User: Which sequence fits this backbone?
């Protein structure tokens, strides 16, 4: 007889809190530290690999330290049609790093992300949780200066 | 013009921060009617009779989904509002959440009452964290006024994964797991969140509920086409002069939306439904927007004649490969293989045999992938091969 | 006790009956019909990941996974239609495309299920040029050797460790093509985390998991004979 697929992973509702915990760690520490993963695994009674698996599945969670501010420029089609390429270039020039990198002073991490749902005001980017829309290369410097 | 505001009736009219402005526009009267004058069965009958179908892309009859969950055995049931609007080019739910969180909450409250759920969740994508406070505020105000005595509504945030908009992955994510897809059957109305009967409705679907309850199924039923009742909210972006959110009666022609409302010119192609949506070449722009024809979640991305179809399809596939959950082989490996082939066409290094390979691969992915992502991922490829085959043939080395 | 309902279905043209709750795969096997499987194991809960066991069911828009789809009254099933066979072939071809290492060098080549399915379906050299999944061989543990370049992500080790050995050594990390069966923080498996139970080694369908062996030791199983 076919068994249900729920047996595959640890049972029970305790794990409900795992993603919420990881999200909190991310916003508090700027990443999900290893020690945190170990603790989370113990407190929820799941394996470390399970927690690590969740932490590495979601693109807004990072298991490596990120900068104080995370810039995420939308690279999806609607923004691409509005020259997101130029915005990416402007950010690269302004802070001197490429997507996937963090500035040496730890102030900014720079990533490209998929559609952030601001296509009517493309090109757009997120810095931390703030949405910046209708970007032009000229606006970038000013916007980045407002993040300390 | 076929613009008609049902879903967006209160948007930019009420103050989304104050429930009083919503109450003066019949706010929560539908919930009151549902609780005092109707049995749960009557509510479900009304929704069924309205012909309302899911607005998240799949178009499943809403009332039927509710009925299945209502009739499923068990006392523990859940209502989930899918606010994980991740489809490329979609932002209508963002607009709704920004401008009218109260109607949504009322819709969830009615749904919970109808199926007998004491717990509701709104699954909000991480990219919309900026909407969290206003949504929490709206729930708190509704609670203070005593509208949510029968149901708790909690918000669960995503953490950046397109596939979590897929209902089974969404449930795994709420359960604190990787957002991986589950096989079906069983379907959520019988076995959903934590194995309990669950309905998952898109934001826009639930926005329709209060007015269906207040005005009756026959009122709603008169709007739209034979099998597509009501209106649809579209997100228009790309090469248009007036991008934005438009609510149209279902069955309205794509041409009217794109050219007359959004003021597009020299259109080459429209992508309807985002990354996994259909490609509509300009000579088919008279196509009606409905469940019978094309619709998806209502993302309308317009490309003018300066755009390169292969570039568009290649980028779309890169997106899908990045967002594949990785559980089933055809989607995980197939999107990867497609990116490789499309990348070569993009660089004008296609091979004669590639076109046939793309077609066979598309067919296998559509037929065997575990969820809608993998099943629909080849659509941009098959559509572009059908309508823009020359673009491929010209890129063969 | 609830009475077990008999269910009648048509499978490849013949009418057969099974019990409520039975999967299409179980019914097929009971009736001597061979459906290839990779992620499925009768000892484990199904996950429907590899999609090789798909079959056609009348009225269904897509093919369905036979290892997890229960039979229903009146179902009409085709287990070897041209569309089904073509689809299975493409999936196997995809798995081979990203698969690293040659069968010649693989200790489990003669017992490898992927290789057997590929041979049965007459899959030739893959037409896809995907990235190869390359990972260094993990041979720290005295009990188990992992060569994840040969992993097909069937999750059998993950489930077997959890459900049979009642341990939770493995997990799945990352996403999409980068998904990988990991131990802890994606570390090479060592004897600290893993005992000498062999459950995952026996259940792995490819050469990804094996017993550490001596140089020059013979390959397991008989040389593969391609069925005619």
Assistant:
């Amino acid at each position: 007889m076919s068994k249900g697929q729920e047996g595959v992973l640890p049972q029970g509702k305790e794990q409900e809190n795992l993603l919420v915990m990881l999200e909190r760690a991310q916003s508090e520490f700027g990443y999900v530290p290893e020690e945190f993963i170990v603790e989370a695994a113990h407190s929820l009674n799941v394996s470390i690999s399970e927690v690590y698996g969740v932490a590495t599945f979601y693109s807004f969670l990072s298991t490596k330290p990120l900068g104080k501010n995370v810039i995420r420029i939308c690279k999806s089609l609607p923004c691409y049609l509005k020259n997101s390429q130029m915005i990416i270039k402007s950010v690269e020039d302004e802070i001197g790093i490429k997507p996937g990198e963090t500035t040496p002073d730890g102030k900014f991490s720079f990533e490209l992300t998929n559609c952030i749902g601001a296509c009517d005001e493309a090109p757009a980017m997120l810095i931390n949780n703030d949405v910046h829309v209708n970007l032009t290369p000229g606006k970038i410097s000013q916007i980045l200066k407002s993040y300390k | 013009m076929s613009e008609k505001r049902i879903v967006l009736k209160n948007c930019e009219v009420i103050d989304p921060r104050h429930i009083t402005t919503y109450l003066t526009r019949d706010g929560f009267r539908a919930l009151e009617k549902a609780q005092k004058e109707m049995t749960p069965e009557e509510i479900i009958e009304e929704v069924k009779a309205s012909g309302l179908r899911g607005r998240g892309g799949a178009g499943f009859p809403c009332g039927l989904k509710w009925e299945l969950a209502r009739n499923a055995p068990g006392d523990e049931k859940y209502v989930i509002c899918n606010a994980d609007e991740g489809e490329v080019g979609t932002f209508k739910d963002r607009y709704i959440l920004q401008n009218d969180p109260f109607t949504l909450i009322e819709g969830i409250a009615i749904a919970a009452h109808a199926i007998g759920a004491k717990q509701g969740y709104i699954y909000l994508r991480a990219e919309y964290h900026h909407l969290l406070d206003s949504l929490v505020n709206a729930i708190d105000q509704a609670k203070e006024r005593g509208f949510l005595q029968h149901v708790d509504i909690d918000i669960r945030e995503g953490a950046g994964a397109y596939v979590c908009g897929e209902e089974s992955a969404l449930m795994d994510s709420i359960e604190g797991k990787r957002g991986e897809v589950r096989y079906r059957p069983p379907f959520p109305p019988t076995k959903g969140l934590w194995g309990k009967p669950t309905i998952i409705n898109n934001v826009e679907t639930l926005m329709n509920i209060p007015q269906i309850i207040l005005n009756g199924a026959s009122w709603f039923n008169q709007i739209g086409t034979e099998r597509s009742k009501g209106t649809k909210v579209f997100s228009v972006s790309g090469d248009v002069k007036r991008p934005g959110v438009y609510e149209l009666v279902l069955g309205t022609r794509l041409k009217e939306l794109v050219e007359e409302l959004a003021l597009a010119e020299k259109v080459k192609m429209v992508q309807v439904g985002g990354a996994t949506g259909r490609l509509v070449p300009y000579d088919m722009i008279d196509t009606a927007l409905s469940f019978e024809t094309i619709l998806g979640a209502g993302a309308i991305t317009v490309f003018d004649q300066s755009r390169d179809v292969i570039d568009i399809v290649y980028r779309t596939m890169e997106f899908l490969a990045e967002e594949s959950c990785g559980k089933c082989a055809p989607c995980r490996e197939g999107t990867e293989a497609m990116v490789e082939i499309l990348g070569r066409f993009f660089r004008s290094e296609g091979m004669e045999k590639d076109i046939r390979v793309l077609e066979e691969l598309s067919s296998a992915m559509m037929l065997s992938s575990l969820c809608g992502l993998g099943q629909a991922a080849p659509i941009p490829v098959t559509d572009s091969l059908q309508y823009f085959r020359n673009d491929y043939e010209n890129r063969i080395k | 006790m609830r009475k077990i309902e008999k269910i009648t279905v048509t499978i490849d043209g013949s009418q057969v009956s099974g019990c409520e709750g039975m999967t299409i795969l179980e019914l097929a096997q009971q009736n001597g019909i061979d459906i290839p499987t990779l992620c499925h194991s009768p000892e484990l809960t199904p996950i429907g990941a590899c999609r090789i066991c798909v079959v056609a069911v009348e009225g269904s828009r897509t093919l369905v996974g036979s290892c997890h789809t229960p039979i229903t009254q009146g179902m009409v099933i085709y287990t070897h239609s041209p569309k089904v066979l073509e689809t299975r072939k493409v999936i196997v071809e995809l798995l081979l495309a990203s698969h690293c290492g040659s069968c010649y060098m693989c200790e489990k080549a003669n017992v490898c299920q992927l290789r057997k399915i590929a041979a049965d379906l007459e899959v030739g050299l893959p037409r896809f040029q995907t990235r190869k999944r390359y990972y260094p061989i993990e041979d720290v543990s005295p009990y188990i050797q992992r060569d994840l370049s040969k992993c097909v992500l069937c999750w059998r080790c993950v489930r077997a460790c959890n459900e049979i050995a009642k341990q939770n050594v493995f997990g799945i990390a990352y996403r999409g093509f980068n998904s990988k069966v990991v131990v802890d923080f994606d570390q090479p498996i060592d004897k600290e985390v893993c005992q000498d139970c062999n459950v995952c080694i026996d259940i792995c369908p490819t050469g990804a998991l094996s017993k550490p062996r001596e140089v020059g030791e013979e390959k397991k199983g008989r040389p593969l004979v391609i069925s005619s």
About this structure: Residues 16-29 of chain A form the longest helix (14 residues).
